[in-house]
């Protein structure tokens, strides 16, 4: 089996490498090293206002990673307790943000926060992401397509603050925490100064053209 070819429109994409928090990855000897070779993340905006987040485990020992089995797609809690890919999306200048969890199982979660770890318990997502997952040899790939209705409401063309992260569950049950930026001594994906990327939502073209 070969991995699917990403179906990307002709728009700017951002690809970054995630790195592990040093407190959660094993030290030498080599046979106890992290099973992750590289963990790459790509994101881009969709013309209708949504966004796509892709995560790729490359050159990795997938047999040493616990990957959730396929399940009925839909919302589920506590996905972060196992291998899971995450995006944190905030509006520039605002303390609030949304957390998106994407599981290889096809399940997902969306949480809304007033401020770091201050969750809006009344929030209910109007729409959820669609997830595709595939693996081949030492590579695994996940694509999550998030509709505009699930993102924070902003004017077209507005930049969103983005934090990209992943939880990797090793076969020994230990969790590794990967992110673009680790601003705290302990793993904390909710740290607002860890949202170091910017994603420009698509602005409407003149005369309705794209």
Topology:
Elements: E1 14-17, E2 19-20, E3 38-45, E4 51-58, E5 74-75, E6 84-91, E7 97-102, E8 107-115, E9 118-119, E10 130-136, E11 139-146, E12 159-169, E13 175-179, E14 197-200
Account of the protein in words:
With 210 residues, this protein is mostly beta strands. The chain has strands at residues 14-17, 19-20, 38-45, 51-58, 74-75, 84-91, 97-102, 107-115, 118-119, 130-136, 139-146, 159-169, 175-179, 197-200. The protein has a single domain (14-204), classed as Immunoglobulin-like (Sandwich), CATH 2.60.40.1190. The strands form 2 sheets. Strands 2, 5, 6, 7, 8, 9, 12, 13 and 14 form a 9-stranded mixed β-sheet that branches. Strands 1-3-4-11-10 form a 5-stranded antiparallel β-sheet, with no helix packed on it.
Please sum up the structure shown.
The chain is mostly beta strands. The protein has a single domain, classed as Sandwich (Immunoglobulin-like). It is built from no helices and 14 strands.
CATH architecture: Sandwich
- How many domains? The number is 1
Based on secondary structure, the structural category is mainly beta
- The average pLDDT score comes to 89
What's the tally of helices?
Answer: 0
CATH class: Mainly Beta
Beta-strand percent range = 35-45%
Q: How much helicity do the residues have? A: under 10%
Q: Outline, from the CA principal axes?
A: globular
Biggest sheet overview: 9 strands, mixed
From the 3D structure, determine the CATH topology: Immunoglobulin-like
List how many beta strands DSSP finds.
14
- Please report the distance between the alpha carbons of the first and last residues: 35 Å
Task: Round the Cα radius of gyration to an integer and report it.
Answer: 17 Å
Low-pLDDT stretches are 205-210
Order of helices and strands: EEEEEEEEEEEEEE
């Amino acid at each position: 089996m070969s991995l699917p070819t990403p179906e990307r429109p002709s728009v700017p994409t951002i690809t970054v490498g995630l790195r592990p928090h040093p407190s959660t990855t094993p030290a030498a000897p080599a046979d106890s090293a992290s099973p992750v070779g590289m963990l790459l993340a790509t994101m881009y905006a969709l013309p209708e206002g949504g966004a796509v987040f892709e995560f790729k485990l490359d050159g990795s020992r997938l047999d040493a990673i616990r990957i959730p089995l396929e399940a009925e797609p839909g919302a589920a809690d506590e996905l972060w307790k196992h291998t899971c890919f995450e995006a944190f999306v905030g509006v520039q200048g605002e303390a609030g943000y949304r957390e998106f969890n994407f599981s290889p199982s096809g399940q997902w979660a969306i949480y809304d926060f007033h401020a770091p770890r201050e969750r809006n318990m009344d929030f209910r997502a109007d729409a959820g992401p669609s997830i595709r997952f595939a693996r081949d040899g030492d590579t695994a790939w996940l694509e999550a397509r998030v509709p505009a209705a699930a993102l924070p409401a902003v004017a077209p063309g507005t930049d969103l603050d983005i934090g990209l992260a992943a939880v990797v569950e090793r076969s020994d049950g230990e969790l590794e925490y990967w992110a673009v930026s680790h601003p705290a001594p302990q793993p904390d994906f909710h740290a607002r100064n860890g949202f170091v990327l910017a994603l420009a939502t698509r602005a409407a073209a003149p005369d309705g053209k794209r």
